[in-house]
Structures are given as structure tokens and as C-alpha cells.
Amino acid sequence: MKDAWSRWVVAHPVWVLLGCIALTVGLASGLSKFQNNNDPRIFFTEDNPDFKRFISLEDSFTANEVVLFVIHPKDDDLFTNKTLTAIESLTEDAWLLPHATRVDSLSNFQHTEVEGDELYVAPLVEYADTLSQQELTRIREIAVNEPSLLGRLVSEEGHVAGIAATVTMGEGKTEAPEITAAAREMAQEYNQRYPDIEFMVTGTVVFNQASAEATEQSMSTTLPLAFVIMLVCLWLILRSVMFVVVTVFIINFSIASAMGVAMWLGIEFSPIVGMAPAMILTLAVADSVHILASYRHERLEGKEKAASIIESLRINIQPVWLTSLTTAIGFAILNFSESQPFRALGNVVLIGVLLAFFFSVVLLPALVMMIPHKIEPGKQRDFSPMMGALGRHITRRYRAWLMGMSVVVVVLMGCIGMNRINDVFNEYFDETFEVRRVNDFAMAELTGMHRIDYAVPSADSGGAMEPEYLRNLDKLVTWLEQQEHVVYATSYTNVIKRLNRDMHGGDPAYYRIPESRELISQYTLLYELSLPQGLGLEDQLDIDKSQARLVVMLENIGSRPVLEFNQKVEDWMAANWPDYMQAKGTGMDVLFGHVTMRNITSMLSGALIALISVSVLLILALRSFRYGMLSLIPNLLPAGMAFGLWGLINGEIGLAVSVVACMTLGIVVDDTVHFLSKYVRAKRELGLNTEKAVEYALRTVGVALVATSVVLVANFAVIGTSHFYPNASMGLLSAITIAMALIVDFFFFVPLLVALDRRRKSARA
Description:
Elements: H1 2-11, H2 13-28, H3 49-60, E1 66-73, H4 81-94, E2 100-104, E3 110-115, E4 118-123, H5 133-143, E5 161-167, H6 176-193, E6 197-202, H7 204-238, H8 241-264, H9 276-300, H10 305-332, H11 340-370, H12 384-396, H13 398-414, E7 420-421, H14 434-445, E8 450-457, H15 467-481, E9 486-490, H16 492-502, H17 517-530, E10 547-554, H18 559-576, E11 585-586, H19 588-622, H20 625-630, H21 632-649, E12 652-653, H22 655-658, H23 660-663, H24 665-684, H25 690-719, H26 725-764
Parallel strand pairs: 7-12
Antiparallel strand pairs: 1-5, 1-6, 2-5, 3-4, 8-10, 8-11, 9-10
């Protein structure tokens, strides 16, 4: 059937081409349903307990989506008429941002004072241009000593201020581009209006939008450049424009069809799904190169075009199918991930890999028959003899290679432990991105990077007014302020202590929690009635006063230390608080920390299941338990060695890096399957001994393995130069893994096969 199919394809190339075009157009038409979703919430399922906690917190209090304006006067003094006027004006304008629901700043901070029996609540700064020097000094004294402002909206030195605009966005965060554009335009306008003051913009909204922009920038610049470099390398190795054209057809047909099917199935495009084309490309290139390299070899042997492509299909269709099938199995395992983007990634790549196989064995031979080209024996260089010479060298010096490579393998595998699972989100961008420069400045001079929220329950409705409850809450705030990496910790206790002090004539001795629930409730009611619209206590207390919000801001320490810090806080609660007050930390930093850990586990388990699958399939296909089990060695070692080297040069494994083992799985398995299939064929069909079988295998498939590896290493190495760290780290580690796969196959697995076969012969003798 295989031979009959190959002959039919070769005999009817025009019909095959028209059929493939019609199929691709039909499938790719699904791209009209393209939906891009940059909402980080798509990483979490509705039944995820961490995500439920996060949604519950946002339902009880105000949302965490913030645009932060950072104000830095060049004279390093906020408390001048000009600077305070600028802050006051920008605070009012920030309310005009699309979807803004709250604005907090130094100027509209609700300062409390008592005269007689009257409580006065008013903005700290009003009519800044008319303030006297004495009033400016008074405002400074209040601001730099107020816990609710310090480290959040005012720096300790009084030289940098922040204006935080809270915005409300719907599902999908489609409003983010509009909000970000408006905020940037506002900052630019104020920079022109006040040339002596620097206005910068960051915050969660701007940061997430910058991630989307970086992904789009990478897809429009870095990825096309990487694709061009890949094609140049392909031409340099195979020396045929026709081969390059055919490979481009297979790549484009495979990716367009796969992405179209994904859109037909309702899969949303996200930065994670954006990695799918690169993964499909690896198998499309590998499949094409193997078939074309074998075709070229047959032509250089003097065979006709039709006979050459039929023979190439005959010897390659089984290993190409095995590679595609096992890679598809590996990505199918991602459906066990709890994150929708990773499930979507697995399904898109699964579809793409199978389509790449189809187009490689159907469209490719048809194109070869249709596109005019010349391959003349004796006039074009055949690299096969060089591969044969390499095989003879390795088999003669197999002991030296095996010992030397064993040392390298042991050393690199031993370095895997130097890696740690961690994502430093701010470092996703290098210094060429404005958001990185602003964040670095804001973290150094004003505030922190990682925020953890705790919704602390009380015993009953209104229980947040209980003195014991607030004292426990205040103990934790005090403890947090003493911990390393904490920029600030704040809760409603700061407000109630300030009110208690002011209601006692400003006596510092009364800066504490009142003894009576009734008194606390009265203070709270009096304070709430004095607050202006939009600046109420809904960000600190829920509507029935049954729980309070505690916020901790940490320095830029990365996702893993954030999880460790959160666990430390929860342990403190368990040891010092009553049972009814126990709370779990939440927030995007905590959520992403947990999901990174879980998805790395699912990725590794998927890769492991695929590797076991390829061994089982090789046992069946090669009818050899021995070779099937031996295939685990060259399939497992490249990723292990690559991660060991990564531990030496970087050591951070985040979401992007975690997909590399699965992403490069296809090419790692491809090298092993093709080499072993040719090696076993040489021993069984041709009756060659071990040394000659190695030489035959390298002579027939070595050029394709080298070509595939060089082309893909060049492709991913260029991606590794991206300014966006997830793309750069993924590209660099992928290039390392693919290079390791070729090195292991040639210089470790081949000597190992020779050593084992000789030992077997010796034992029989």
C-alpha cells in the first residue's frame, strides 16, 4: 500500500497539489475567527482553588488592575508649589482614564484632623500653588511619616511620588490597549507641560499590555528574521533552491492549516499558543529535510527523479511517521494541564505535527516532481562520503569517544540541580523596553514589584470592628514590616489607629487599636461619612465589615521566593491567630507561581510519556526490545544535558523555559528514530556488521540529521537574541537542546552501540 500510494502521488502531482491547496484553504479559513486573549486569567480554571480565592477577593474589595504614574522632580523635592500642583492636576486628570474607578495619590490622601468634637477629613494637598513654605513643610512632615503613603505613593526621602489609578476591565482585558495608550499620552503631555519634572507610567495594566506588544513585536521582527536565517542555512547545506522552496511550502501549509483548525475549534490565541508555530516548524523542517536529503542522495547515485523520490519515501515514511506520532502523543498529554493555554498549545501542535507529516509525504513528492531542478552526479558535492568517514572514525575510536562523552554527560547532568523554578516577571523585558526602565526606577526609589493580598475573615458580620480582631491584624502588619524584602504592609489598622490618635488630641500614645467595638464602629462610620465619592473604604473592608484586606508589597525577588514568603506568612498566622482568622495569600504573583510549578510538572510528565511511547513503538517497528530500550538513552540525555548547561549559564526555569523539553522532543526523537531505523536496516536487510552498519546509517541519514540540526539551531539561536526574555530563553535553550541531540547521537550513542555489540559478540564467543 505504501509503495502504491507513493507511485500514485508521483504519477499525479498536479492533482495532489490542487487537493492540498484546497484542503489548506479550507482549513486556514478558520483564521478569520482569530481571537487574541492577553488576559493573564486564562491561565487559571474556574475550579482552581487559588483562582477562586482571587476572584472572591476582587468581589469583596476593589480590583487590583492599576495604572501607576511615577513622578520624579529633577530637584528631588516633591514638596514645592510647582511639583505639588502638577501632582494635584494629574490626580484629577487620572479620573478621566478609560474605565477608571478610583485614583489615589499624595494630593487626595484623606488626612484627618480633630477640632474640639469635630472630625475633619480633607485632601492632604489642596490649591498647591497657593501654599506657603510653612504649609509645604507641614505636608511633607505628614506624608513621609504616614504608613498608608510611605513606600506606596511617596518615597522615604520625599523625592518620588506615585499616582495609582484603579481601573475595571472585562474578561479578556480588551480595554488594556486603550487604557495604556491614554495613560502614556497623559504622561507625555505632562512631561511637556512640566519639563523640570519627569512623568513615567507603569502598573499591572501597562505591564500586561507591554507583554502583548513584546509578543507582537517578536512575531513581526525576530521570528521572520529567524525564518530567513533558517532558509539560508538550509540552502547552504542542501545547495538547492528547489529544496528550500519545497520546505517553505510544507512549513507554511502545515502552520496555516493547524492554526486554522485551532480557530475552527474555538481555541483562543495567547502568548503561550503563539509558541505553536515554532514547534510545528521543527517537525515540518525535519520531515522535509530527511525526505529531500535521501532523494538527493539517490539522484547523486544516478537514479531518475521518480525512482529517487519513491525510494526516499520508502525508507523514510516509517521513521517520519514514528517521530510525528510520538511527538503528537507528548503534546496530547498537555491536556492534563490545568491551564487552558497549555492545553490549547498541546492540541494545536498535535494537529500541526500530524498535518506536517501528511504534507511531507503527499505534497512534498508532488512538488519535487513539478518544480524543475537539476541534480547531476559528479557535478554537485555529495556529503555522504564525509558522513561515512565520520562513522569509520567513531567506530575505530569508540572507546575514547565513549569515555570522553560519559564524563561530559555526568558533569552536565550533575548540574541540573543548579536550576531553580522561578520567574522574575520584571526581567521579561530588557532595558530597551520603557516599562522595564520605569519599573527599575520605581522599585529602586518608590515601591516594590510583587503584591500579595490576604482577605482576613472575622467571626461574624461586623466582626472586623472587634478590637481583638484588629489587634491580631496589627500584629501581623508589625511583623511583616520587620521582614526582609517587604517594602510596605498595610491594612485598615493604619486608618483606625490614626483616627484613635486624632480623636485624642493627636497624642502619640493613642496610636493604637481602641478597646471598644462600639468606639471603633463609631470612628469608622464618622470617617466614611466624611470621605468623598470614589475614595471610600471598599479597598480595605468588605461591605458588611466581616473581613479586612491586608496588602504586602515585596521587592523584585521572583515567583519562587514570593511563594516561600507567602508560606512563611501563612505559617505565622497558624501559630499566632485564632482559627477563624486564618487566610491564604492571593494575587497574580502567587497564582503564577503556583501555575508555573504545576505546568512544569505536566510538561515533564508529557515529555516522559512520549519518550516511553517512542521506545514502545520502536520495539514494535524494529521488532527489537533491545534497540527500543536503548533508544531511551539518546532521547533522555539531550534535554538533561541542556538543562544542566542552563544551570551553569542561567539557572532560572520559568513558564517559557518549561515548554522547551516538549518543544524539542520531536527533533530529539527524530534523530534517534532515523538513525536507529537505518542502522537496523543495514544489519538485517544488508547483513552488515556493526561498524559497517554505523557507516551505512551515517552515510544515508547523517547529512539530513546535520542539516536539520544546523537549520533549527540557527533558527532558535536568532530567536534567542530577542529582547523579550520568554522568547529569548526559549530560543536559546531550544538551540542548546537540539545541538545536544546531534552530539549525543553521533558521539555517545554510536560508540555505545559499538561497545555493546562488541561485548555481545565477545560474550557469545
